[in-house]
Design goal:
The complex is a heterodimer of chains A (231) and B (121).
Chain A lengths: L1 H32 L10 H4 L2 H5 L8 H4 L2 H9 L15 E2 L6 E2 L12 H12 L5 H5 L10 H11 L7 E3 L2 E2 L9 H4 L2 H9 L1 H4 L12 H16 L3
Antiparallel strand pairs in A: 1-2, 3-4
Helix pairs in contact in A: 1-6, 5-6, 8-12, 10-12
Chain B lengths: L1 H36 L1 H4 L23 H5 L3 H10 L19 H17 L2
Helix pairs in contact in B: 1-5, 4-5
The chains are: A mainly alpha (231), B mainly alpha (121).
Amino acid sequence: MSELRSVYGALLLVLCAPLAAHADAAATVREQCASCHAIDKPDYAALGFAERGERKGPPLYYAGNKFNAEWLEAWLQKPVRIRPAGVVPSAHVRATPEGDVVDPSTLSEHPALSAGDAAAVTQWLMQLRPFDERIAAQNYEPGQIAMRMGQMNFSKFKGCDACHRDSPERGGESGPELHTAWNRLQPAFIASYIADPLFWDPHTMMPRSGLVDAEVHKLADYLKALQETQP
Amino acid sequence: MIKTAVTTALLAQLALFTAAAQADEAPAHGKALYKIYCTQCHGVNGNGKGVNAAFMPIQPRDHTDSAEMGARTDADLFKAIKEGGKAVNKSVLMPNWGANLSDDDIQALVAYLRELCCKAN
């Protein structure tokens, strides 16, 4: 009987372990991440544009619809800056006679997590998928584009390089860099965000350009090509 | 009769007061929006030297240039912000903000641009 009880106990422990880890991760995220990131959908209309001006990190309440889990887990252990001018560029820029420059002393580093915490937090964040339907509705099939054509489209025709870098040396600094975007983000999210950034973030600083699917897909393919041609 | 006239006059006063208050608020709201949406290209001081400008083949408009800005009507500025540079035969680097900002927001930006270009000089 006591043997049976201990087997039952062990079984219970095994079954509950993932739940406990899940609860720990939830607590970690609420404690450590929520002061800079929206873990729940903000009431954008009530908060107004001030929300964008005061934001400290990108919203994470749809992390599971956005990120590649493998990238997220690795990045949390060794974070590298994605937004050269921070989340609110005007707060990290100073005027000089030659023009505005990023003031790195005002930018804060993202904390690095242990391997265990990174795995648990990633697992927890990846289950935040309020926009599964939106992602499923995407008809983007990743394809090929010639680098030169892709670059010209990205810069000259669509003007994306005004705010985004497509290489560490080229492009604007106010938006997130895009030369590692394919690694970071799910293809369907990339296509969906380019097509309608306001769906994902009503206070985004990215305009909704009214691109047709083929144009969106061409830009997404360029981000794929960028990743593939990197050393 | 007198009562009606007084009420009408009071209401007219109130409408004027509200309009004046809104006109006062517009540049302040515009300034807040400008800081978030415009300074990265047009500069924290509005002089066209934003942090993105160094990488652009065409320099963003200097909003403190009163001659340049004076040559444009409010309707021109509104259209450029709402529909983007392409709509006014300017650069594609100036995006269309009509989906991100309401017409009232854009009007507030135009009001702030008028302060930036012309009141200081």
